[in-house]
Design goal:
The chain is of the alpha/beta class. The chain has helices at 36-45, 62-71, 88-98, 120-130, 172-185, 192-198, 220-234, and strands at residues 7-12, 30-31, 34-35, 50-57, 79-83, 105-110, 132-138, 145-146, 152-154, 162-171, 204-207. The protein contains 7 helices and 11 strands. The structure holds cytidine-5'-triphosphate and magnesium ion.
């Protein structure tokens, strides 16, 4: 696989974390000694495909985040701290505006996912060919659809169902058009691939990692602490391997 450094990264960290609760939004809480957002930031900072990073945070935390980043070791890549918006897609839009023209690809990643899959180059390569590519996992459990009273009404065939994850990678212009279309039509989406699908453009699915969990509710912390501790032991700086063939963490 040829290596191109052409991918700007938007890490969205401007949510309120209402389902998680607590005093501080989940992405700023410490996970094995590091703020949650810092895990994915480190991952992308050390990846060969990445040009620059926009870290999107709540407007009142921009200065504090900039200060925290300045105190850490200097980065080899530009990191811009950007104010987020009301909806996730507004935060993505603000991040996109901060990226420079040198990023012809853009990866969008949830800060609430501290352990991005190590085969990130693969999703970038697919995005270069298809325009859009996302990480996901095939559904392994039986899915039920229920009605308003909780009665099971259907058991959809799971063989074609996948759970969507981030990072999701797009050709820059495609992501910009998709976000513009959502704004024009007043549509709210929970991920950027759904916005691209509204344009009728293909989105390629790439198998991600089971470790790429999203911290959403309090019970998710225990699993994240276990994964984080394991990665600290195996891979002290949680750096993606550059020379060896890439793959998901051993599980
Ligand atoms: N996010 C964001 N801007 C928003 C809303 C969400 O940057 N206006 C980010 C979150 O910080 C998170 C990611 O989008 O990293 C995925 O969103 P989610 O897991 O839903 O986080 P929250 O919106 O913070 O949580 P909740 O929905 O429980 O309030
Ligand atoms: Mg949310």
């Amino acid at each position: 696989m040829t290596l191109s450094r052409d991918c700007g990264v938007i890490i969205v960290a401007a949510g309120k974390g209402e389902r998680m609760g607590g005093k501080m939004p989940k992405q700023f809480r410490l996970l094995v000694g590091e703020p949650v957002f810092s895990w994915s930031l480190q991952f992308f900072l050390s990846h060969d495909a990445v040009t620059e990073i926009a870290l999107v945070v709540p407007p009142d935390l921009v200065e504090k985040t900039e200060h925290t980043l300045r105190q850490k070791a200097s980065h080899c890549l530009p990191v811009m701290v950007v104010a987020g918006g009301t909806r996730r897609q507004d935060s993505v839009g603000n991040g996109l505006s901060a990226l420079s023209a040198k990023s012809s690809l853009v990866a969008v990643h949830d800060a609430a996912r501290p352990f991005p899959p190590l085969n990130f180059s693969e999703v970038c390569a697919e995005a270069r060919s298809y325009g859009a590519a996302i990480f996901g996992l095939p559904v392994t459990e039986t899915i039920k659809q229920v009605d308003d009273s909780g009665i099971v009404v259907a058991s959809p065939d799971r063989s074609r169902l996948w759970v969507a994850q981030t990072p999701q990678v797009f050709q820059r212009e495609l992501l910009a058009s998709a976000l513009a279309l959502c704004n024009e039509r007043g549509i709210e989406v929970t991920d950027d691939a759904a916005a691209v699908a509204l344009l009728g453009r293909p989105v390629k699915m790439v198998e991600g990692s089971r470790w790429n969990i999203k911290l959403t509710v309090p019970d998710d912390w225990l699993l994240a602490e276990c994964i984080g501790s394991q990665l600290r032991r195996d891979r002290p700086a949680f750096l993606p391997s550059r020379s060896k063939s890439e793959g998901v963490p051993e599980q």
